[in-house]
Specification:
Elements (H helix, E strand, L loop, with lengths): L2 H20 L8 E5 L5 H9 L4 E4 L2 H11 L6 E4 L8 H7 L2 E5 L2 H9 L8 E6 L16 H9 L4 E7 L8 H18 L5 E3 L6 H6 L4 E4 L1 H4 L7
Parallel strand pairs: 1-2, 1-8, 2-3, 3-4, 4-5, 5-6, 6-7
């Protein structure tokens, strides 16, 4: 067991709790997802031993390989947080229990078809683009309601909420304030979809202040990311 890993996890969890209390929120209402991109299975095993129950990946091949080898220990949830090619929707669904990056109707349909075999419902979040760049991942804010309605029509998907990544050229607090507004618009169509997936290693405090329920934290816990495998 890496003592430094345990120390980093404790430090981040203490910071999350402090940020939540500063925002007048219950720290227990915030889920910390550890992003393990490019890290070996040994690190995931150590995280599980330390009590981590939510891990995330953003490449289909990597999550598929890791789930195939590591399995699904009781209580461990695999989150997929990267962009999904429609042709890889079935593989993503087979590996992940939660997909944070649903951003178009065609992808919703592909994920839905992949569950037609009677598998458990797939938890999904709609990713919204907080930038002016249409090539960035995420649905345009103007299309949030229509995509929400479409996802609700997909019988094997369970809409949980909204996700976004803060732009690099903007203060995170301002971006997450917009996201909180978009989350309200989504809940007006799907009242039970109250998850807000936002905040990473450098900006999770601002995300918590804006109402984030799920944080996607990598290097602050795992340490430097290894070279791409």
């Amino acid at each position: 067991m890496d003592a430094d890993l345990a120390a980093r996890l404790d430090e981040v969890d203490a910071s999350i709790a402090g940020a939540a209390r500063s925002a007048g929120r219950d720290p227990a209402a915030v889920t910390r997802i550890v992003i393990t991109k490019f890290h070996p299975l040994s690190l995931i095993r150590d995280l599980v031993d330390l009590g981590v129950r939510d891990v995330g990946e953003n490449r289909q091949q990597e999550i598929s390989e890791k789930v195939a080898e590591f399995g699904r220990p009781e209580g461990l949830t695999w989150h997929f947080v990267g962009q999904v090619q429609t042709k890889k929707a079935r593989a993503v669904r087979e590996a992940a229990s939660v997909v944070h990056s649903l951003d178009r109707a065609r992808l919703a349909d592909a994920l839905d078809r992949a569950g037609a075999d009677g598998s458990a419902p797939l938890d999904v979040l709609i990713q919204v683009n907080l930038t002016e760049d249409p090539d960035r991942g995420g649905v345009a804010p103007a299309d949030i309601e229509s995509l929400t309605e479409h996802v609700l029509s997909c019988g094997t998907l369970r809409l949980r909420g909204i996700m976004a990544v803060a732009p690099l050229d903007e203060e995170p607090a301002a971006a997450f304030a917009r996201l909180a507004d978009y989350a309200g618009r989504l809940r007006a169509v799907a009242p039970s979809a109250d998850w807000i997936s936002a905040g990473m290693s450098a900006d999770f405090a601002e995300a918590i202040a804006a109402g984030a329920t799920h944080l996607r934290i990598g290097s602050a816990i795992t340490g430097p990311r290894p070279e791409r495998r």
